[in-house]
Amino acid sequence: MYKEQKMIDEGTTVTVIGLGLIGGALCHTFKKKGLKVTGVSRSETIAKALEMKIINDGFEYSRIPEALSGSSFVFVCTPLLDIGERLGDIFQHVDKNTVISDVGSTKSVICSIAEKHIRKGVYFIGGHPMAGSEKRGIENSNPYLFYDAVYVLTPLPGTPKKVVKKLSSLIDLLGANVMILPSEVHDEIAANVSHLPQLLAVLLTNHLAGKNNDLFRNLAAGGFRDMTRIASSSYAM
User: Fold this and answer.
1) pLDDT band at 3; cut points 50, 70, 90
2) pTM for this one?
3) Rounded Cα gap, residues 53 and 56, in angstroms
4) Which of 54, 121, 181, 230 is the most exposed place for a label (fewest CB within 10 A)?
5) Mode of pairing for the β-strands spanning 57-60 and 73-76
6) Which parts of the sequence belong to the Prephenate/arogenate dehydrogenase domain (predicted)?
């Protein structure tokens, strides 16, 4: 675990791209801690985030370059396949000394893509908060989602320790416990403790869906609900 509390200046600008459950939860906490939060999402989601008062400013995806201006930290919280597609554009438009991270549930491929786009004075550290919900959307986000959860960081080789500490200090504000891991180690563990359980839940749900007899559904009780709760989680994420 990496738990070294360092001060993040009040007013530090954080840009969160993708305001769903995870992105919304980041906005909740960072705004509550006095940081300046810029959100990027669809227009209706931006309107909702402003109404909830969890961002200071909001931009649609087409205006990402504007949203990145002046940001010290950028979190990419879009669906997994979308993260890799956006990194090149993000690297091109961020200011020098910006720290970019993501919240994708697999890390090796994303980190490999980031290495191809990295430029001097800009940093990328992969991230995966081991927290979430089967519920989706900004309306289900809250500032306590990450509290006491493990938050894995996977720095690229050669990332300065002071940059890792800087991002770790920001994650500390979430109440999470930072763990530094190589991306391939994270992926092996996550596949077993996170992805496999979800696949089994989906398999069990689909198995019952193929039964036309209502007795199956009527007799399914707490054990079945516990086993299949995460089957409704977003595949895209």
Assistant:
1) very low
2) 0.82
3) 7
4) 121
5) unpaired
6) 12-237
Q: What is the pLDDT of residue 230?
A: 56
- Distances from the Cα of 190 to the Cα of 106, 181, 194, 199, angstroms: 8, 12, 5, 13
- The closest alpha carbon to 65, from 15, 116, 123, 27, belongs to 15
Average pLDDT over residues 72-81: 95
Q: Domains in the chain, please, with CATH?
A: 13-182 (3.40.50.720), 187-232 (no CATH)
Structural tokens at position 179 = 């763990």
- Average pLDDT on 25-29 reads 97
Contact (CB, 8 A) for 174 and 26: yes
CB-based contacts of 60: which residues, under 8 Å, 6+ apart?
40, 41, 42, 43, 46
- Write down the residue that tokens 């980041």 correspond to: 26
Q: Measured between alpha carbons, how far is 89 from 108 in angstroms, rounded to an integer?
A: 20
CA 236 to chain centre: 13
Flag whether pLDDT at 224 surpasses 60.
yes
